[in-house]
Design goal:
This protein is 50% helix and 13% strand.
Length: 177
């Protein structure tokens, strides 16, 4: 995940399931006329004909990084990542009680310029791939703890619909202030 465009700010959307990360990443990319990296887990897991294993989570993380690296070449000012390695780390630890060392090392070495941590203040929407309807607050706190360990810059994003997007834009605009 080399920074080919060093002037591009890498912004990650992080949060529990069903907190509008994908919707926000796409909307932010449209707003700023730039690239975004979709979450690869959904397509990857949908194609499996079995229960996922640790190697699948690792492969998903690698796909995310590769896609971001490619899209950095055409990004303008910002690139928005709909998920990132904190989610992979927590997913590995929560489900498999282990996490490959390279994930933690990469997190430390190449953290994002800014994180938008999405609050679980939106209603749950059932989905065949979603697993944690009653653990969203727990996972939110875990992600927050990971951001603090990284000493990362972040904003907690709340609100519904356009208000949620406006809160993201406001946080991003304050980066340049």
């Amino acid at each position: 995940m080399e920074k080919k465009n060093s002037h591009i700010l890498r912004i990650a959307l992080l949060g529990p399931e069903c907190t509008a990360k994908s919707t926000l990443a796409a909307a932010l990319a449209r707003h700023y006329h730039t690239q975004w990296v979709p979450e690869h887990a959904r397509n990857y897991l949908s194609a499996l004909n079995r229960k996922y294993v640790l190697d699948d989570v690792v492969n998903i993380a690698k796909l995310q990084l590769e896609d971001e690296s490619l899209k950095m070449n055409t990004a303008r000012k910002y690139i928005f990542a709909d998920t990132e390695l904190i989610i992979a780390k927590v997913w590995c630890m929560d489900v498999f009680h282990t996490c490959p060392q390279w994930i933690s090392e990469t997190l430390m070495a190449k953290k994002y310029d800014y994180y938008l941590l999405t609050s679980p203040d939106l209603p749950w929407e059932e989905d065949a791939l979603r697993e944690n309807p009653h653990r969203r607050e727990f996972l939110f706190e875990w992600y927050l703890d990971e951001l603090k360990k990284l000493k990362a810059d972040y904003t907690i994003i709340k609100g519904h619909g356009e208000e949620r997007l406006a809160n993201c834009i406001q946080a991003i605009e304050q980066l340049g202030a």
